[in-house]
Amino acid sequence: MSLADRMILVVDDDSDICWALQHLLEKLGARCVQTHDGRSALEAVRLYDFDLVLVDAKLPDMNGLDLGETIRNAAPLVRVLVVSGYFYKDDPVIQAALARGSIRGFVEKPFSHASIVRAMETALNPARQ
Question: What does the pLDDT read at residue 128?
Fold first, then answer.
């Protein structure tokens, strides 16, 4: 599953993370929009047709897991991937969100380029509908 020509929203209050992800995504041929809080992310979801949203778990104005669920309810075809240094993959709250389908994947910070790309490709896999 290629990331080329995919529209991806990066939501993180750390501008360095947003910058790094945007540059990685653009090198892979994806189009990227970045926001730094939940309110701006919800506005971006209203304006653009995203394939994937990368959400930090801790945002200044809301919980990233709640934001992910709100995005999935507003745009059911959008896949949400949580990226966090606060939670871990086996954390019960992450496992519950995965089981509910409110998120499609989880990546721990710090992450390698290979691990985040693999997680994005897996989240976009149509077999996981």
Answer: 54
